[in-house]
Amino acid sequence: MSGDANGKLGKHVVVLGSSMAGLLATRVLSERFEKVTLVERDALQDNPEPRKGSPQAQHLHVLLARGAQVIEELFPGFFKELVEAGSCPGEMSDAAWYHFGQWKARAQTGVIAYSQTRGLLDWKVRQRVLALPNVTVLDRCEAHGYLTTPDKSRVTGLKLQRQGEPEMALDGVDLVVDASGRGSQTPRWLEELGYPRVEQTIIKTDVAYNSRMYHRPKNHKASWSMLAVYADPPNGRRMGVLMPIEKDRWILSLCGILKDHAPTDEAGFLQFARELPKPDIYDAVKDAEPAGPIVVHKFPGSQRRHYDQMARFPESLVVLGDALCSLNPIYGQGMTASALEVMLLRECLLKQGPGELSGLAQRFRKQVPSVLLVPWMLALTEDLSYPEVEGQRPPGFGLMRWYATRLHNLAAHDPEVVRGFANVQHMLKSPAALASPGILWRVLTSRWSSPTT
Ligand SMILES: Cc1cc2nc3c(=O)[nH]c(=O)nc-3n(C[C@H](O)[C@H](O)[C@H](O)COP(=O)(O)OP(=O)(O)OC[C@H]3O[C@@H](n4cnc5c(N)ncnc54)[C@H](O)[C@@H]3O)c2cc1C
């Protein structure tokens, strides 16, 4: 094992994938390794343009408050810079949000989320990461498999191929981190090495995002800066979210679950917006000038790979981000979940002695389910409220749904409930905060109010 006496764990670590999970992982690994190499299939440009390997970047991407906290901790001053570049911070009092048949109360929560194109967010994080003196990038470079010790018990590198060049071996590294997204090949590569196939859970929801950017009309006046009209499960399957982004634009994502997808033609797209439970999004964009085409992204469902349950798993390999757990995007949790996994990796690294890496991979894979518990549960509870969605309902699911529905009902007029809800949704507080004595009392004693208009 390489490493030295000045607190470094090793000489060289390789991170596969330069999207949010890979970039944040590179940042924390740069603290404990002499050199970090970031491998990316795409050409990395010094601009915010979307890349082939990040097709979701053309769709609405909100960074939840907890994710923002982590990024600010890793890159002090980041959000000042991001806002100067056009990012639009906002909280519940800025948002008109129709959910469960009610407009939520416009309460001040202090819970700030950031809206911008995903390209801008990634570019700004990438600039910070690439400025680190011990980080090197290998872009236009695709990974084809792992290199290991002869007994295959430890990953020692990657088989790589740069565009237009023969395959090469990047061997002799101390740790490999797979942050290559939902399409990660680790399940297959491990199987080829003689490991069992990792079990995975998929909660099939067949979601599609149809998105379009608009120039925000100069004379536009509204009490909101963000507008969301959500489905009312289990009946409604359609939702729309209109968010401000840099350069005085809006991004509109129209989402349909269980194959109830928005059309891709202009008239059908607008009609879908008009037929949402409230027509406010349609009213806002119908005369706005489009700033791009209608783009589509299909998402089969939340997916989790259970590396923690494998009887055997190699040393010196960590899998995180969407490669480990890819969450239904309509809840906006993916980047924040990745950020929390990276912070767990940082904690695990801190527990290793100088020059000592043994046990790290096993510790991380065993502990990461504790980080995923809440985001997975939040996404699952909403998805499984559709009877057509297959998946085991947890014990007490009916009671949970009853409680959640009453909470949403209360959130139409009770600022305290809105604050509790915002803190949980943004992963700042545990869902237990929504069963605090104050909120529990309100839920149990409130009279049922009819939907607002
Ligand atoms: C439509 C949509 C909307 C979303 N909205 C939100 C939102 O509002 N808020 C939020 O927090 N999250 C959202 N997400 C989720 C978010 O995009 C991801 O969770 C986030 O990008 C973290 O993913 P990642 O970094 O693990 O992987 P990815 O973003 O998928 O990146 C993987 C990277 O690995 C590279 N790569 C892959 N294979 C190889 C290989 N073999 N060799 C070299 N490089 C490789 C790819 O080119 C890519 O750069 C959304 C997702 C979708 C699909």
- Just give the CATH class of the largest domain: Alpha Beta
What's the CATH architecture name of the largest domain? 3-Layer(bba) Sandwich
Q: Compute the CA-based radius of gyration.
A: 23 Å
Unreliable sequence segments = none
Q: Can you count the helices? A: 12
Q: State the share of residues found in helices, binned by percent.
A: 25-40%
Described by the principal axes of the CA atoms, the overall outline is globular
Strand content: 15-25%
Mean pLDDT: 95
Question: Any key phrases for this structure?
Answer:
453 residues, alpha+beta, FAD/NAD(P)-binding domain, Alpha-Beta Plaits, 3 domains, 9-stranded mixed sheet, 12 helices, 31% helix, 24% strand, binds flavin-adenine dinucleotide
Fold blueprint:
Elements: E1 10-16, H1 20-32, E2 33-39, E3 62-63, H2 65-74, H3 78-84, E4 88-90, E5 95-99, E6 102-103, E7 113-115, H4 118-130, E8 135-138, E9 141-148, E10 155-162, E11 168-170, E12 175-178, H5 186-192, E13 200-215, E14 226-229, E15 238-245, E16 249-256, H6 266-274, H7 280-285, E17 289-290, E18 295-305, E19 317-319, E20 325-326, H8 334-351, H9 360-383, H10 397-410, H11 415-425, H12 437-445
Parallel strand pairs: 1-2, 1-12, 2-8, 5-14, 12-19
Antiparallel strand pairs: 3-7, 4-7, 5-6, 9-10, 10-11, 13-16, 13-17, 13-18, 14-15, 15-16, 18-20
Helix pairs in contact: 1-4, 1-8, 2-8, 8-9
The chain binds flavin-adenine dinucleotide (FAD).
The site of flavin-adenine dinucleotide has 38 residues, from helix 1, strand 3, strand 9, strand 18 and helix 8.
